[in-house]
Amino acid sequence: MTKTALVYSHDFSACSYGDYHPFKVQRYRLAFDLMEEYGLTRLSNGHIRECGTVSDLELLTFHSPDYLRRLEEFNCSTESRADFRYGLGDLENPVFPGFYDWARLCTAGTVEAARLVTQEGYDIAFNLAGGLHHAHRARASGFSYLNDAVVAINGLVAQGLRVVYLDLDAHHGDGVQEAYYDSDRVLTISLHETGRHFFPGTGFETETGVGAGEGYSVNVPLIEHTDDALFMKAFDEVAYPLIAAYDPDVLVTQLGADTFRTDPLTRLEITTHSYSYIIKKLKALRIPWVALGGGGYDLVNVARAWTIAWGIMNGVELNPRLPPQFVRTVSAMGLTNTMLLDAMYWAEARDRNLALDEVEKSISAIRKRIFPFIIGSHAATSGK
Fold it and tell me: Of residues 134, 171, 172, 225, which has the active-site annotation?
């Protein structure tokens, strides 16, 4: 039986980016509530674990000392503060009392998830509040103040472990790619909406790493209207074979739900169909797995996606209709979805053909440039 841990704290939802900011921390509580309604917080093999703490030394494995000092300084301020050198205090990354404490809590959850799968025998550990993948070494970005994935992965690499980081968010995982761009100890793979006219403006097929990291950064940029079948195609023909060939000690995934077709900030058109398909295939790899939350700006989509993921991780088949109490809760919030699961979505023919052409171009480029590094080199050293 798979041994799993859900890393969760009620304090994940104990702050606010602002009434009009798209990042709503209430999504963590809503996701947990939906899991409770389905009985997924009372499983014999699935444990709810607290976050623990993260030390300054762990944060300093990626973030610069001056940046952390400024975060600490602003954390306790009751006045409006900003330092645009560090990306702090603008509309995207607001400064509010306790924001650094909250970012540390989210990061501690990811560090704890990594510890659980490497030291306590858990097969899967899922931190809902992880996956804040845009934070850079000395700059907040994309609603992210600390890069929890990088801090946790640095701890794994320090143990001599090899890691695959797979990012399924609609936005490119630029902060994580930056951290390992010159390393072959971490293979980063990101499937995302193209950065041509979309934040963060990176993540093209030509970004493949430098030095020892050449060939170990993989990007599949997807154009608007990429649907379920095309998203699964990108995963099956790029991500899955590369993960299998690299054969990591630990798999870290960012499971953002902003790829869904009803997300207000993005233009991809996937549903729970392809999301579930990918989660099932990742579980079937049987690699120690650290799963992280990520983006998602439709609150019900986030709750549905992460509940589906947690259910699959635990081998629980869920009722395709949302529980009545949850429906009443979201109805009171002005939200109307009543289904957990969506039917597979096909984009309109013209849009789909354009998206298919782009996916096939990306796959072809990656096969030529990346596959020789990963599949060729690791086939000869599969024993690690």
Answer: 134
